[in-house]
Automatic annotation (TrEMBL):
Binding partners and assembly: Homotetramer.
GO molecular function: glutaminase activity
Keywords (A to Z) from UniProt: Acetylation, Hydrolase
Record's keyword annotation contains Hydrolase: yes
Record-linked Pfam families: Glutaminase
UniProt name for this protein: Glutaminase
Length: 309
């Protein structure tokens, strides 16, 4: 495992930017379809050192599925492992992230893991709060803590756009409600979920979140505990087994670090005891992962021997 320098980030981005042509910006959430496929950025946040960045690093995008790691951490802190895993499983599904298929073939209709949409919806359903507004505040509080940025909030347009078109996610919710996996109002749950997915961030802040996981749940600058060690460990394990959806196996072979992607085109990666990396490029491959992000992380693994295996 070799040291990473800012010049590496510039070089890698320069080398992989062309791959954006091989992907397509997500358009099933109408507000995401406006993203420019040629935009890209990368940031590396070493534990106890200065952040390094390249590309359009000030560009902001939404967390989308990356938020699932954070709501999982929050639910585990609030309710403990036993309660959380009574509602969601621990196994990879090998299905696309939006799939409904496995809910029907298993009894009880417990989603396979917290990284697919069904599992993430079940986890968000557990977040404490008297109403959706308080639940969203709880999630924002955690993201603000991990990014050390009290101004973090969600993009109302993206949240609204997803809320108005999330028919498949509603279907997953109603299915799980029928089977007692989720409780309460599906519309309120969708309100929270679409807002958590629409949380606005840039690569520097996202790399800081990854650095907290790299530092076993501790602040990468002050070393203060932010997430309990065992919770950080569970989250990282899910990132390895399910973080890149049905491409997680290939990613583990080609890159070999805990990582989580989102359909906005972001990926966060965890370099154990070293730091966090975040890549953004909105053009996606068929499985919903950023093509530029995947290529850049492959370069990192190849050139710096960063696979954990
Ligand atoms: O629920 C959805 O479909 C989106 N808000 C998030 C999906 C996602 O990011 C999958 N990622 N690759």
């Amino acid at each position: 495992m070799e040291k990473i320098f800012e010049k590496d980030l510039h070089q890698w981005l320069e080398h992989v930017r062309i791959y954006a042509n091989n992907g397509k910006v997500a358009d099933y959430i109408p507000a995401l379809a406006n993203q420019q496929p040629e935009i890209n950025a990368v940031a590396y946040y070493p534990i106890g050192d200065e952040v390094m960045k390249a590309g359009q690093f000030e560009y902001t995008f939404t967390l989308q599925s990356i938020s699932k790691v954070l709501t999982l951490a929050l639910a585990l802190v609030q309710h403990g492992e036993k309660a959380v895993f009574s509602r969601v499983g621990k196994e990879p599904s090998s299905d696309p992230f939006y799939s409904v298929a496995k809910l029907e073939v298993n009894t009880p209709a417990k989603p396979f893991n917290p990284m697919i949409n069904a599992g993430a919806l079940a986890v968000t359903n557990m977040i404490r709060g008297r109403d959706s507004e308080e639940m969203v505040e709880e999630i924002l509080k955690l993201v603000r803590l991990l990014t050390d940025d009290p101004s973090i909030t969600y993009d109302e347009e993206v949240a609204k756009s997803e809320f108005e078109t999330a028919f498949l996610n509603r279907a997953l919710c109603y299915f799980m409600k029928q089977h007692g996996i989720i409780t309460g109002s599906v519309e309120e749950l969708l309100d929270v979920y679409t807002k958590q997915c629409a949380i606005n961030i840039n690569v520097q802040k996202l790399a800081r979140i990854a650095a907290v996981f790299a530092n076993d749940g501790r602040d990468p600058d002050t070393n203060n505990p932010l997430i309990p060690l065992h919770v950080a460990r569970i989250c990282k394990t899910f990132m390895v087994t399910c973080g890149m959806y049905d491409a997680s196996g290939t990613f583990a072979i080609n890159v070999g670090i805990p990582a989580k992607s989102g359909v906005s085109g972001a990926i966060m990666g965890v370099l154990k005891k070293n730091g966090g990396i975040a890549v953004f490029g909105p053009a996606l491959d068929k499985k919903g992962n950023s093509v530029v992000g995947m290529q850049l992380l492959e370069k990192l693994a190849e050139e710096k021997r960063w696979s954990m295996f």
